[in-house]
TrEMBL record:
Gene: GRIK2
Domain Receptor ligand binding region: 25-283
GO cellular component, one term: postsynaptic membrane
Keywords: Membrane, Signal, Transmembrane, Transmembrane helix
Any single Pfam family the record assigns to this protein: ANF_receptor
Protein name: Glutamate ionotropic receptor kainate type subunit 2
Length: 319
């Protein structure tokens, strides 16, 4: 008796730093594939295999070569890479060949985007920007300081940046220092200017460092209210600031009350796949960040769709 089965190969292209540990996205990608294979009810008669390729940061030529090599082997989909130049190169190839390209990090999409085989699990930047503007209006802020890490932050926050022309809002824009983690000179200027309502657009790792420096600067009192655009604010250890009086607002997309989500987070924490943060980093150990969980969701989404298509195309077993 012939037993029908589907074998799907997924490719992950991940950037790496020489002699550095395996990144959270690659760990989550492997974790997701293994989890799906262990649960035979999730994708019955389907077995996943994966091949991970590593490239140097911002090396679009190497990313293109890896993508072409993997596509010649018949992979069902490609995940990553994350950084824009490399991601754009892979995206162009996948779109030309009709192969799904999955991204888990923010990427600016132009209005005439024709990449029909590209899927991003990161929330649309305009939706997040409107949500932040809604928060500012809800809090009835009249003056706001926006502190951003790089120029993409200005794109992500464009709804807020355009607000002064439509609302009675005074906006001040500042940039974090690019060549150092020392934000104290910037914080000192903000303290002198009595800038109490601040929106930080930066990674959660950088946010942890900023909060520690703000505490040392006496800027964690009830007069201050900080909004963080990172979706991983809950990965920060905020216990040192619990009784400081400061107000902090953030966003979270993971619904930890959902049984399936909580189960995955628990498995991630128990297996402790990710290296623990440094003791002085201000981050929680074993916390699954938004960027970590995205590869798992996208793997499940892609394999479910692809397996259904391939099951239809498989020859029927003989009578």
């Amino acid at each position: 008796i012939f037993k029908k089965g589907v074998f799907l190969t997924l490719c992950g292209i991940f950037e790496y730093v020489e002699s550095g540990p395996m990144g959270a996205e690659e760990l989550a990608f492997r974790f997701a594939v293994n989890t799906i294979n262990r649960n035979r009810t999730l994708l019955p008669n389907t077995t996943l295999t994966y091949d991970t390729q590593k490239i140097n940061l911002y090396d679009s030529f190497e990313a293109s070569k890896k993508a072409c090599d993997q596509l010649s082997l018949g992979v069902a989909a490609i995940f990553g890479p994350s950084h824009s130049s490399s991601a754009n190169a892979v995206q162009s190839i996948c779109n030309a060949l009709g192969v799904p390209h999955i991204q888990t990090r923010w990427k600016h999409q132009v209005s005439d985007n024709k990449d029909s085989f590209y899927v991003s699990l990161y929330p649309d930047f305009s939706s997040l920007s409107r949500a932040i503007l809604d928060l500012v209006q809800f809090f009835k802020w009249k003056t706001v300081t926006v502190v951003y890490d790089d120029s993409t932050g200005l794109i992500r926050l464009q709804e807020l940046i355009k607000a002064p022309s439509r609302y009675n809002l005074r906006l001040k824009i500042r940039q974090l220092p690019a060549d150092t983690k020392d934000a104290k000179p910037l914080l000192k200027e903000m303290k002198r200017g009595k800038e109490f309502h601040v929106i930080f657009d930066c990674s959660h790792e950088m946010a942890a460092g900023i909060l520690k420096q703000a505490l040392a600067m006496g800027m964690m009192t009830e007069y201050y209210h900080y909004i963080f655009t990172t979706l991983d604010l809950f990965a920060l250890d905020v216990e040192p600031y619990r009784y400081s009086g400061v107000n902090m607002t953030g966003f979270r997309i993971l619904n930890t009350e959902n049984t399936q989500v909580s189960s995955i987070i628990e498995k991630w924490s128990m297996e402790r796949l990710q290296a623990p943060p440094k003791p002085d980093s201000g981050l929680l150990d074993g916390f699954m960040t938004f960027h970590s969980c995205c590869p798992g969701w996208s793997a499940m989404l892609t394999t479910t769709s692809a397996s259904r298509v391939q099951e239809i195309l498989l020859p029927q077993p003989p009578e």
